[in-house]
């Protein structure tokens, strides 16, 4: 077999993003770092390539790049399916599960539906591991937290709050987030709620996360970041996506500091959902990763043996820029280990008639484009288009465009002609996100492409867009294009990446 030929059943398998060996995967779960190992668990249906009775699949890594598949960590039981949740290191054995030593505790949602009435019941439960996550024991007194009046009551994220000397649980409850506190992970008391009037309510709230980040360029300042995924409404073209709030965490409750109607999106693309961060990541790092899909069409995506992949792991930082706080994200630096060959082009003039088409082709690649407009950049009143960007195209004539629309002040991805899209009418589209204050109109563009996905970061990571694409066959060729104006490429850096899927 030719090295790059794709086995038919794995035609759509990304090569350096995490995917399950077979069958259905959705949200990342149980993400925790312990004794040099990153654990990544995930919503998993071992019985097929559609969503079904949920288990927790499991994988481990030393570097967030190379993953080893492990046996299924949690199976459904008499309390129901295993929905999303987290894992923590119980350093001081507050739970009493570990005979005084540290150990891992998973906190997850048990989900049942009463067959006769269709009533949904969601409650929070524990499982613990005494052997570094190899095997998991369900707690005998599950569930540990119930609110029978709330049908949507799920996706616990727990952290140890040093100031208050207690565990904090953040939970999604339909249209708001609830907070609970505990000293032993087993008994929880309600401490507050947030969000009924805040942010976007275009869909059920799910998969929250809460953490404090230092403001990198303001000594001694920090903010709490509350991440909330929203399931999307059928009439919304965007489908499911993830928002975040900035504020403080006081008295067991998150208090937002921005106008209630303000909505901040984690990712302006269509395919990044249910992302949360690793517990206990070393060196104060805050690393998040999402499910690279969208509930609008997740079940319809082209697939043979498996369906679903994760985004790249990304490091989060808060910065003050353009008069406001911005959450920046860039793929973790460990990914540089995948680089297999590099090329650099410098000082190239590009006009609409003379796009730059370097002679190269790769299925898996990382690009960094630094550039500037050669003339005056027109404002929103201009009549004609004024765009520049990178086109990833294949020999079949399929293409994905990633660009800056200077007139609109936007970063966009155009996947209208990117490949297979017949599975859902909303898939083939061009969509965009507003450039952030202080970013300027010719931001650096960083792009990671992996067969069926593009992840784009503009500026220093203050804008991120993640999209699935389904070109019939690789490799990608690249072209730097402009429409309406001229640009100068300062540097274009391309790295071919290694195949990494085991
Ligand atoms: C988010 C979600 C969670 C739930 C899980 C079920 O994608 O709907 O709220 O726990 O998926 O698989």
Q: Quick recap of the structure?
A:
The protein has 502 residues and is mostly beta strands.
Cα gyration radius (Å): 23 Å
CATH architecture of the largest domain: 5 Propeller
- Distance separating the two termini: 17 Å
Distinct ligand kinds? beta-D-fructofuranose
Instruction: Give the total of beta strands.
Output: 35
| Percent range for β-strand residues | over 45%
What is the molecular shape? globular
Residue windows where pLDDT falls under 50 for at least 5 positions: none
Biggest pleated-sheet summary: 6 strands, antiparallel
Q: Look at the structure and give the mean pLDDT.
A: 95
Q: What is the CATH domain class of the largest domain?
A: Mainly Beta
CATH topology of the largest domain: Tachylectin-2, Chain A
So what's the oligomer here? single chain
Number of domains: 2
Sheet with most strands: strand arrangement: 24-35-26-31-32-33
Let me know the CATH homologous superfamily of the largest domain.
Glycosyl hydrolase domain, family 43
Helix content: under 10%
Spell out the key features of this protein.
six-stranded antiparallel beta sheet, 35 strands, globular, 502 residues, binds beta-D-fructofuranose, mainly beta, 2 domains, single chain, Jelly Rolls, Tachylectin-2, Chain A
């Amino acid at each position: 077999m030719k090295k790059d030929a794709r086995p038919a059943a794995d035609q759509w398998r990304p090569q350096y993003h995490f995917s399950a060996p077979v069958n259905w995967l959705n949200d990342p779960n149980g993400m925790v770092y312990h004794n040099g190992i990153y654990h990544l668990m995930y919503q998993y249906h071992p019985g097929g390539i559609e969503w079904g009775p949920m288990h927790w699949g499991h994988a481990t890594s030393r570097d967030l790049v190379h993953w080893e598949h492990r046996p299924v960590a949690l199976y459904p039981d008499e309390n129901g399916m295993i929905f999303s949740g987290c894992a923590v290191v119980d350093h001081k054995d507050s739970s009493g599960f570990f005979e005084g030593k540290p150990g891992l505790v998973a906190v997850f949602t048990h989900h049942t539906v009463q067959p006769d009435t269709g009533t949904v019941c969601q409650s929070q439960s524990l499982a613990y591991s005494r052997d570094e996550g190899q095997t998991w024991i369900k707690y005998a007194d599950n569930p540990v937290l119930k609110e029978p009046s709330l049908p949507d009551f799920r996706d616990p994220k727990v952290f140890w709050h040093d100031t208050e000397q207690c565990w904090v649980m953040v939970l999604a409850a339909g249209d708001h987030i609830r907070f609970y506190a505990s000293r032993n992970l087993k008994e929880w008391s309600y401490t507050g709620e947030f969000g009924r009037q805040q942010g976007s309510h275009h869909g059920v709230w799910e998969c929250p996360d809460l953490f404090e980040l230092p403001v990198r360029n303001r000594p001694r300042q920090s903010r709490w970041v509350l991440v909330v995924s929203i399931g999307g409404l059928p009439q919304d073209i965007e489908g499911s996506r993830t928002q975040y709030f900035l504020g403080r965490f006081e008295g067991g409750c998150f208090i937002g500091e921005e106008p209630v109607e303000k909505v901040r999106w984690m990712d302006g693309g269509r395919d990044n959902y249910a992302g949360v961060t690793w517990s206990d990541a070393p060196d104060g790092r805050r690393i998040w990763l999402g499910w690279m899909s969208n509930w609008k069409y997740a079940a319809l995506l082209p697939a043979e043996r498996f369906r679903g992949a994760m985004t790249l792991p990304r490091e989060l930082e808060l910065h003050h820029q353009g008069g406001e706080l911005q959450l920046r994200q860039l793929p973790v630096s460990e990914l540089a280990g995948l680089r297999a060959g590099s090329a650099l082009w410098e000082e190239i003039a590009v006009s609409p008639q003379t796009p730059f088409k370097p002679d190269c082709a790769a299925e898996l690649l990382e690009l960094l484009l630094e550039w500037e407009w050669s003339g005056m950049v027109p404002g929103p009143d201009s009549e004609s288009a004024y765009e520049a960007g990178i086109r990833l195209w294949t020999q079949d004539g399929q293409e994905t465009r990633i660009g800056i629309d200077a007139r609109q002040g936007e970063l966009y991805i155009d996947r209208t002609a990117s490949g297979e899209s017949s599975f859902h009418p909303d898939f083939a589209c061009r969509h965009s996100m507003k450039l952030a204050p202080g970013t300027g109109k010719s931001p650096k563009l960083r792009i990671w492409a992996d067969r069926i996905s593009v992840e784009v970061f503009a500026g220093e990571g203050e804008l991120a867009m993640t999209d699935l694409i389904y070109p019939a066959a690789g490799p990608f060729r690249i072209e730097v294009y402009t429409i309406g104006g001229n640009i100068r490429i300062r540097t274009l850096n391309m790295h071919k990446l290694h195949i990494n899927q085991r």
